[in-house]
Amino acid sequence: MSTRTPRIQMLLTGSELMSGDTVDSNSAMVGQRLGELGITLERKITLDDDLDALTAAIREISTYADILIVNGGLGPTVDDLTAAALAAAAGVALGENPRALAHIESWCEQRQIPMDAANRKQAQLPAGSDILPNITGSAVGIAMTLGDCRVLCTPGVPGELRNMLDSIIDDIRHRHPDLQPRHILRLQTFGLGESAAQQCVADALPDWPQQVSLGFRAGAPQMEIKLTAASDADPGLQAGCREQLESLFGDHIIGEGNATLAARVLQLLSDRGRQITTAESCTGGLIASMLTRVPGSSAAFEAGFVTYSNRMKRDLLAVPEALLEAHGAVSEPVVRAMAEGALARSGADMAIAVSGIAGPDGGSAEKPVGTVWIAWGSAADLHSCGLCWPVERSLFQTMVAAAGLDLIRRQLLALPPLSWQAERRRIDATR
Amino acid sequence: MSTRTPRIQMLLTGSELMSGDTVDSNSAMVGQRLGELGITLERKITLDDDLDALTAAIREISTYADILIVNGGLGPTVDDLTAAALAAAAGVALGENPRALAHIESWCEQRQIPMDAANRKQAQLPAGSDILPNITGSAVGIAMTLGDCRVLCTPGVPGELRNMLDSIIDDIRHRHPDLQPRHILRLQTFGLGESAAQQCVADALPDWPQQVSLGFRAGAPQMEIKLTAASDADPGLQAGCREQLESLFGDHIIGEGNATLAARVLQLLSDRGRQITTAESCTGGLIASMLTRVPGSSAAFEAGFVTYSNRMKRDLLAVPEALLEAHGAVSEPVVRAMAEGALARSGADMAIAVSGIAGPDGGSAEKPVGTVWIAWGSAADLHSCGLCWPVERSLFQTMVAAAGLDLIRRQLLALPPLSWQAERRRIDATR
């Protein structure tokens, strides 16, 4: 047991990681969990399924690291070499581990499959090692101490690793009881850019406390703001920082943790006993899909319309032919008529309607690719705006769908309809 | 210049890679491109932005590797240390590189922004190094030879790396002219499992030639089969292997390269001058969204219906109330009525309709979570089947949407409606 922050490295193994057939998300999962403990990974090494290279790496790292997390190579095939490499590095033999064997037997029994030689191989562990339980897969994890280094071997299947991480974290905390876990708060935002937000904090909050580190991670469509504070920092400090961010970015903040625009909108609607409908042209069903991906969405969503052609805007949503002829499908009058039609047909209280040019074809000088009109609100309180996002088709669809959801969120919360960022993209005055 | 296969390693740098805030997809991109050259990455090392650790790693790797590809750390901030670490490892000074400076000047000019000190820092390269052009970003790449090792430093922004990879590949081929690029053929499939497909090949094609390696990569919803052959292999060999796979998995193969079910369905419809519509309950717009993500989808898709509630199935798709009462929304008669209603309302030639229980709530003993009915076809030739996929909500939606598209694909190609795999999931007889 040590009072300094432990040195932790990862060793990843698998030919699919070297060929690029698999993108490694496992080490990011481990890095995030270690971050909550206040530990930063020191190094990651990724190797092919090569016994000598794996053995040499385990031996070398174990001479100075406190903890080595090995990922992959625990499966039943001949390419799975982690147990053999660990045994070779430790200078011990492989032998059948009774607890590992019992796990595999019960795993096969539950699935009503006979235990074959390949399964049985997974019970061959280095002498003197312990198992780390695997609640989903056939391969147990392996824990073993080499000199002063704790080696923890974990499965490559992401779901199995995720399930094993709690016992890994427990193992590390048990050996390093003085670790000071960090308080991490994640805020989900929409309509903010990474560098602009960073600059905004630097300009508006020059006295930001050093004890609370601030990270920005841009995704499409949301951006995450991460506040990290040491567990021994003043508890009021992080809360104070959060308040400062809320007054700075307030109406951009959707929620905490894994909050999404769609889930937030559905919750606001449910709280108010309202129903929403969608009328989509350029997003082609994406807004409805984002809403219905959320469990329980049926409480506030009954129907959506995908009207891709002019004829369907007319036949399904009663958009007047005259409007289509006079203004074109991508226009303010048409998108408002789409919203009105969807409200009338579905009986919902609120609607989001979008019509735009997703590209790559279909643009013109007057209405270039990326032009979109959005209408949102209720029949009595319907709003609309035109924006231009000249980006790749699927990113355009994602951003427009998110913008529609955000505009409804703002209306439900009585916030101003457009952020300073979206403002820059506006192409016309709204009503 | 060498005639053996070069030893290539990668060094990745960035605190976001250690914290897990970013998942590294760059090394997979590099691994795939090297695979086409017939080279397998020997090792990847990932480090924090730490000058000493980066310098030591570059120095160590350069003593035995032929090529070291460094990724990240070329930006304008103080955390970007790649040039400094390379200079330290080489024992040379950093100095302003005229070609790098010219690039940055022109980059700033194009964006009409003044060149600041941070931008100018990116022109500080190790003495004796060359630049690798960056057509999109401000940071040039760096090429330098340390002893016998070629060190190639690349930007961490994925799009910039992608654009730089052609010149990296050229640099490697120039120094290793005897490399034998591989022929790689990727086939996209639906309805096949990874291990079952592997077993199927082992059983049915025992004489599979050693010169053509076979890889299976399961994704949701598609699985990729990768055939890799040396460039000096008999050209007929890979073609022959492909034919064997086609006779084995024929109706599961969607197409080559990046083919998707939605794009394939749209192409088959366009070829036949037909239109498709969708009537979605449990997939909530996902099928329409998958179709409209494909550029040019308007040629074969005009309208889709998301009817999440019973009332909307009745009001929008004219599903008889009596059917809903007698059989429930998740039933064969209702899903067929949904398809018929969507065909009638949209005027399309073909429809996909789905109604199921995505969960986590809403299941019963008779109709557990994962139960789904799908109807597909034209008014004159309408089919239906019931399946059960008891998986997590969003995976269920993805798999059901893909199954619907695959059933239409099979009908358009006059293939049998269900594969042996889906057959196992059937819950009732079809008409």
TrEMBL record, chains A, B:
Signal peptide: none annotated. InterPro entries: CinA, CinA-like_C, CinA_C, Competence-induced_CinA, MoaB/Mog-like_dom_sf, MoaB/Mog_dom. Residues 9-175 form the MoaB/Mog domain. Belongs to the CinA family. NCBIfam families: cinA_nterm, PncC_domain. This is CinA-like protein. It comes from Chromatocurvus halotolerans.
